[in-house]
Specification:
The chain has 8 helices and 12 strands. By secondary structure, it is an alpha+beta fold. The chain has one domain: BirA Bifunctional Protein, domain 2. Strands 1, 2, 6, 7, 8, 9, 10, 11 and 12 form a 9-stranded mixed sheet that branches. The protein has a 3-stranded mixed sheet with strand order 4-3-5, with no helix packed on it. α1 links the parallel β1 (2-10) and β2 (34-40). It is globular and about 45 Å long.
Length: 277
């Protein structure tokens, strides 16, 4: 069972704060796997591999457009979040998701040789890269359900349009700590693409960014896209999806759980991992 909460529009600091709270609860097994769906107010985020030079706009220009800047512990470089973009934060315990036979074979092929033998004899649950591939599959299926053919790109991550020149329609970047995931994906639905001119998106200069609205030529219903993402999560993760009206419905009577201040930086432990997708 995966619980889904659609939070509407949320400041990035609030999103970080909420993720930290839910990570602690998931690691303590006090909640099950949870998918947060939301939009952010305009913000540029820098992952742990980010280069400051990939922010092209001056602080004054960012302020003029109402864009905040945050560093975070996800993998990857620089990206933008804003209205019209559907952001998903899966708070999943990877140990609860079995590796499918085709995923095991894909892992074997990617590693080859000794790596292939290790993969066949290794763990039977999802690893971080397997999880990223599943998120890509969710996004590819979702775009496909609206008539936008998308694909993976060799050596890159995310979802990319099939029509030439291929453009990035969804970005991924996750963090894994004690087998629990955070951060996730950003799908450009009705996103104002001019915001991406403020940065070098994901540090990639050879491809541009697109949106579902741009590809189809009309605005989409954000809730319909959210429903499609939920359905595809259920299919790809072989899980039932339970929509909840609020975080309170997820937390039940756990209102006494303290929240960490957004300004605090989460300590990076030795078993933490960050991954770009």
């Amino acid at each position: 069972m995966i619980s889904v909460v659609n939070l509407g529009v949320l400041d990035y600091s609030e999103g970080l704060e909420l993720q930290r709270r839910l990570i602690d609860l998931r690691q303590a097994n006090e909640i099950g796997d949870t998918l947060l769906l939301l939009e952010h107010t305009p913000v540029i985020t820098l992952g742990r591999n980010a280069r400051a030079a990939n922010i092209l706009a001056s602080p004054e220009a960012l302020t003029a457009r109402g864009v905040e800047v945050f560093e975070c512990d996800r993998g990857g470089d620089v990206t933008f979040h804003g209205p019209g973009q559907l952001v998903g934060y899966p708070i999943f315990d990877l140990r609860g998701h079995a590796l499918h036979a085709e995923e095991s074979e894909m892992r074997s092929q990617e590693r080859g040789g000794e790596g292939a033998r290790f993969a066949r004899a290794g763990r039977k649950t999802l690893g971080a890269v397997d999880f990223i591939r599943r998120l890509e599959e969710v996004l590819i299926r979702t775009c496909g359900s609206f008539g936008i053919p998308t694909k993976r790109m060799k050596g890159l991550t995310g979802a990319w349009t099939e029509t030439a020149p291929s453009a990035k329609i969804a970005a991924l970047g996750i963090h894994v700590s004690r087998s629990v995931t955070s951060h996730g994906f950003a799908l450009n639905v009705n996103t104002e693409l001019s915001f991406f001119n403020l940065i070098v998106p994901c540090g990639i200069t050879t491809h541009h960014v697109t949106s579902m609205q741009k590809e189809l030529g009309h605005e989409l219903n954000q809730n319909e896209v959210a429903q499609s993402i939920s359905q595809n999560f259920g299919t790809v993760f072989s899980s039932q999806m339970l929509w909840l009206e609020s975080i309170d419905a997820l937390l039940g009577n756990r209102i006494g759980v303290p929240l960490k201040a957004p300004s605090e930086l989460r300590q990076i432990h030795g078993d933490d991992q960050t991954f770009l997708a």
